Amino acid sequence: MTGSYIDNFLNHQLRRLRIAVMGDVMLDRYVFGTVERISPEAPVPVNKVTRTRAVPGGAANVAANLAGLECRVYLAGLIGDDENGRVFRTLVQKAHIDDRGLWQRPHHAMTTKMRILGDRQQMIRLDFERTVTITAAEEAFFLQWLQQRIADGLDGLILSDYAKGVLSPRLTQSLIKMAKAAHIVVLADPKGTNWEKYNGADFVTPNVKETGICLGTAVANTQEAVYRAAKAIHERYEFAHLLITRSEKGLTVVRRDGKCWYSPATAQEVFDVSGAGDTAAASFMAAIGAKLSIRAGLQLANTAAGIVVSKVGTHPVGREDLLQLWRQRQGRRWHTYHTRSWQAVAKKIRQWQAVGETVVFTNGCFDLLHRGHIRYLQQAAGQGDHLVVGLNADSSVRRLKGDRRPLVSEEDRAILLHALSCVEEVVIFSEDTPEQLLAVLRPDILVKGGDYTPEEVAGRSYVKEVKIMPFCEGYSTSALVAKICTVYGVKTGE
């Protein structure tokens, strides 16, 4: 029953939700590189930069997660009039987030966090920021913004506080009272030691450390200790629920009357916990805004956070990603694979690119998948964040390889490729080259295997960069066919 009701939420209700996010917005910049030596100037590693990435951060990361779930999202906050502020606004617009609630303060520098990573390991973080005092004009603007959103129809409000000064006590209380008067669910992500300004919120979502800071004492990450801490906070403040995020231990909700819900985290290889709390808050609010139960909301939030921690940096979770992983975790681990249209994959590529992620494309017949193919695809995937594979249709393979090929049908080849963890999407094309497909998809990087020069590669004008990679020597479909024929005593050509 729960499974079908969550499937309906993911497939139909999400797109109809309207959620507003207000708080401290910032720009997250990532510098990726490889470390191979120590500097001769000082005992520090030399990071050879390979690529950079910028994504919306802070409260905007919450909004980006909601946009990834395909909700209608409205964002409000204070931005700078500098270059980082302009980059931030462009990213927000590309993510299809309504930015009418962004107030650009003159002569203000955009809050920016820069993370330097070497070989997927964060080496240092540089913060460019200063705490602000909100003005009367800015406060009036934000209140008018929320009043208009309520008038247009709203399912939820998230207050994302990073203690940078936008969510002042008076403004926060005014926003909560306005939302509650309209019967809109309010979720607040708190900071600091005094949480009176969040009084009246339906859900307050600290992590274990923030819970301890509020109480003035460390809280152990056990169910008993977390429950006692939540009860103590409920005695101090007027919240309906506390949702405490507990890293690898999962999520715990404690209602004011003492009722408790607990959802353990799903086992997941963790690369980076950046933004996992924002993802959990966004997913949970979407579920509650759609009138799902608290238990269902916790299950969805845990599933979404599990996707994020397996990646490096902040990554908004897509609705289709969440739907796919949800189905897997419900036990439906095998289903018939249906290739998607060029336009559907192009839309997904635009969503990835809108948040600064790099999309890699390669193509081939991949008839009798072997070790050489796998190695090549893994190397191609390593050039960016997402790998899309263009697969030659059966008719195309026959023209290229002869009437006896392919040995494996296009549908079976697509299923095999899509099952690889390094491959995100498979698109079938019937032309001799992928040029027409690339004109629709327009990924960032085109990877080609073999002895080519970039100028010889078909479709190169539709990408930013072409990379040539050698095939893995000693492995080929032709050699595999020849070996099979030899083993079974079949002469080639018979």
UniProtKB/TrEMBL annotation:
One of its GO terms (molecular function) is nucleotidyltransferase activity. The lineage of its organism: Bacteria, Bacillati, Bacillota, Negativicutes, Veillonellales. CDD domains: RfaE_like (cd01172). NCBIfam families: cyt_tran_rel, rfaE_dom_II. It holds the Pfam family PfkB. Residues 361-455 form the Cytidyltransferase-like domain. Pathway: Nucleotide-sugar biosynthesis; ADP-L-glycero-beta-D-manno-heptose biosynthesis; ADP-L-glycero-beta-D-manno-heptose from D-glycero-beta-D-manno-heptose 7-phosphate: step 1/4; Nucleotide-sugar biosynthesis; ADP-L-glycero-beta-D-manno-heptose biosynthesis; ADP-L-glycero-beta-D-manno-heptose from D-glycero-beta-D-manno-heptose 7-phosphate: step 3/4. ATP binds at residues 207-210. PANTHER family: BIFUNCTIONAL PROTEIN HLDE. It catalyses: D-glycero-beta-D-manno-heptose 1-phosphate + ATP + H(+) = ADP-D-glycero-beta-D-manno-heptose + diphosphate; D-glycero-beta-D-manno-heptose 7-phosphate + ATP = D-glycero-beta-D-manno-heptose 1,7-bisphosphate + ADP + H(+). Its EC number is 2.7.1.167, 2.7.7.70. Residues 1-335 are annotated as: Ribokinase. This is Bifunctional protein HldE. The keyword Flavoprotein does not apply. It comes from Megasphaera lornae.
